[in-house]
Amino acid sequence: ASSVIVAIDRPRWSPGLGLEAQVKEELRRESIACVFARPFCTLEPIGDPYIDEFAKFFGKPELEIEIRNNVVVSATVKRSAPCGSTYYVAEKIVGIGTKELIVKAGLLLHYYPCLASMEQDPILGDTPLHIAGLVTKKAVYQALKRALQRRKKLS
């Protein structure tokens, strides 16, 4: 292996930060890149070609949305959370008004069988599922912001 992605969607999957650092160091000595994604949907490029190639398609969600009359008329997934929840959210936000969009997106993530746990993660100081919901809400917020900027340029 030349690259390793370790998904930590449950706190008990992690040996702790100390052992994670040791694993990273051992792998680094063997010229193997390593990233611990806590939860998996927070994965972003790290400068390693293999991890970055994977992270183009899976990791921190990214969407594009189109808005008409303050309602989402289309949503396209540019990068999906590894569990697939981004596709579910994108499908379900079509028809939702912009005022309730962000809150609804977070709820939709919780309706999906996301891999992230509801166990408190002492390293995150939160549950992985709550972090996944926040990541999803931020992705939808960013997509909404871009859609509104595009609309503003056209007017």
Q: Quick one: CATH class of the largest domain?
A: Alpha Beta
Strand content: 15-25%
Unreliable residue runs: none
What is the typical, i.e. mean, pLDDT? Answer: 96
Given the helix and strand composition, which structural class is it?
alpha+beta
Number of folding domains?
A: 2
Strand element count: 4
Topology of helices and strands:
Layout: E1 3-7, H1 17-29, E2 33-37, H2 49-57, E3 62-68, E4 71-79, H3 85-93, H4 101-111, H5 128-154
Parallel strand pairs: 1-2
Antiparallel strand pairs: 3-4
Helix pairs in contact: 3-4, 4-5
What does it look like?
The protein is of the alpha+beta class and 155 residues long. A hairpin with a 2-residue loop joins strand 3 (62-68) and strand 4 (71-79). It has helices spanning 17-29, 49-57, 85-93, 101-111, 128-154, and strands at 3-7, 33-37, 62-68, 71-79. It is elongated. The protein contains 5 helices and 4 strands. Helix 3 (85-93) crosses helix 4 and helix 4 runs antiparallel to helix 5 (128-154). A two-stranded parallel sheet has the order 1-2. A two-stranded antiparallel ribbon has the order 3-4. The mean pLDDT is 96. The chain has 2 domains: 3-57, no CATH class; 62-154, Enolase-like, domain 1 (2-Layer Sandwich), CATH 3.30.390.
Question: Would you kindly provide a brief summary of this structure?
Answer:
With 155 residues, this protein is of the alpha+beta class.
Q: Which features does this protein show?
A:
single chain, alpha+beta, 2 domains, two-stranded parallel ribbon, 5 helices, 4 strands, about 45% helix, elongated
